[in-house]
Structure formats: structure tokens, C-alpha cells
Design brief:
mainly alpha
């Protein structure tokens, strides 16, 4: 399945069903479009290497899909919703995987969409905390936080129905 511009619009329309935080959606949308700027492009001297694993140059694809730190976070959070697949390593495959697993209104799709967006945002926040505040957390702690926020969001959404 090849993702199209229409798929991207549909994807964000269904992600936006519960999200009121514009900064959050901007981060997720920027990630989705693979337009994350490095700190060097923002005029910040933080280096080009990934601050999460320190093993590769930072890019959107590396930060969210290929970084060993991120892969451990994804594994833990996906297991929490009984999603036993592996996050793809290639951006276009990741987009198709997201669209495929997030389709529909069934509970598993809702969990998947929420975990996905919280995962992206959580990894981005961790990256920024390391760069701007010199603070870091272990991947299991980030994963636990993402799962807790996901559970709260799903519970809140369901209580409004």
C-alpha cells in the first residue's frame, strides 16, 4: 500500500478526534511529514548526532524508527496494547503501517492511534529535555509515562461518550 496525500489528511483527521493541544498536533504532523529540523538548523549548537542513542546522525527516520532507544520505547508501549508487531525501519513503511493499524473505530484502532501519537510526542519531548535541560530518562520510564497518558486519554474520551 502506498500512502497518498489524501491518506495523510485522513490520518490526521482521525488523530485529531481527541487532541486539543495545538503544539502536540504540530509536533506529530511535522514528524509525519518528515520535516523535523535539526538543532543546527535552528541555530543551536547541539551536534548532529542522535541524543537518545549517540550512535547515528539525527533525522526523523532515525529518531522515531531506527534509534535503539526509540525502538525499546516502541516495543514496550506496543506490548502494553497487545500489538505484537515491530515498528518499521523505513519512513514510508511506517506511514503505511500507521494507517493500516489505525483504521476504524474499534477499540484496538483507538488504542493504537493514541499510543502512536503519544509515542512520537514522548520521544520528541525526551529528545528536547536532553538537549535543552540536560535531563534524561530511561526508556522504560518514558514507555510507562506514555502508557499512563494513553490510558488517561482513552478513559477520558470514553467517559465523554
Amino acid at each position: 500500500m502506498v500512502s497518498t496525500s489524501t491518506d495523510h489528511i485522513k490520518y490526521f483527521r482521525f488523530l485529531n478526534y481527541w487532541m486539543d493541544n495545538p503544539q502536540f498536533m504540530e509536533t506529530v504532523h511535522t514528524c509525519w511529514e518528515k520535516k523535523l529540523a535539526s538543532t543546527v538548523q535552528w541555530g543551536i549548537e547541539a551536534g548532529k548526532e542522535c541524543v537518545l542513542c549517540k550512535n547515528a546522525e539525527e533525522s526523523a527516520e532515525h529518531l522515531f524508527l531506527q534509534c535503539q532507544y526509540a525502538r525499546k520505547v516502541w516495543k514496550r508501549i506496543l506490548e502494553s496494547i497487545d500489538q505484537h508487531s515491530t515498528v518499521p525501519l523505513v519512513w514510508e513503511q511506517f506511514q503505511n503501517w500507521c494507517i493500516q493499524n489505525g483504521k476504524g473505530k474499534r477499540a484496538t484502532a483507538q488504542w493504537f492511534k493514541t499510543v502512536l501519537t503519544e509515542g512520537i510526542y514522548g520521544l520528541w519531548i525526551e529528545r528536547n529535555n536532553r538537549i535543552f535541560e540536560n535531563k534524561s530518562k530511561k526508556e522504560e520510564n518514558i514507555a510507562k509515562e506514555i502508557v499512563c497518558v494513553t490510558m488517561a486519554r482513552i478513559s477520558f474520551k470514553n467517559s465523554k461518550m
